[in-house]
Description:
Number of helices: 12
Distance between the termini: 6 Å
Helix content: over 70%
Order of helices and strands: HHHHHHHHHHHH
Radius of gyration: 21 Å
CATH class: Mainly Alpha
CATH architecture: Orthogonal Bundle
CATH topology: Tetracycline Repressor, domain 2
Low-confidence stretches: 1-5, 27-35
CATH superfamily: Tetracycline Repressor, domain 2
Largest sheet: none
Strand content: under 5%
Mean pLDDT: 86
Shape: flat
Number of strands: 0
Number of domains: 1
Amino acid sequence: MERRSIGHAGTLFQACQDDAMRTAKRGTERREDALSRERIVEAAIALLDEEGESGLTFRALATRLATGAGALYWHIANKGELLIAATESVVSRSLAETPASATPHEAIRGIARKVFETIDAHPWVGTQLSRAPWESPTQQLFECLGRQVQALGVRGGAQFTSASALLSYIVGASIQNATNARLFEPSVDRVEFLEAVSARWKALDARTYPFLRKVAAQLPTHDDLAEFLAGIDLILTGLDASL
Length: 243
């Protein structure tokens, strides 16, 4: 089956980037309102990064912005809306950073990498993406992946399945990575910890755990991002084979 041209794929991705940029800059027609809402969202992002979702309250946000809670409610109805707005802002910036000239494979890898790095830096983003898949942030990501799936030449109902598989892997694996990274106390050395786990795997019963014993040596030195992107390549190889 003939695949779509790289030029067309670039046009599709440019459109997706433009959508993300427009979302990030939404509401600029009324500058005073946009700046006020932008300040609230940016302060919320900083608070979420520092304290996590439990630390994001309108009282804490009002204190940080040196204003009253009533002023915040003028722009943001509730905490749920604020979480969506903060996630949307972070995701939109991430999606806008992948080069528009990329091939479909490059674009999908680029999107995956940025989401992986974004969730690693902002773990709460992963929670929001998985919690409300029908909201704008996840829709943006699904749209960008879907356009690249189309550009690969995937047809019919397989487009939904393919984009869904990519979305599920990217978000799920990124969340797991961010969760794992935060299991370590500052005093715990990652390599030493993984070497200890590797030693335990090597000592497992050979008949019950033949696979874990075989891969145990790879555990201490594996690169999380490289393994994640290798998973993306496996999915892309499968998509190529189905065309």
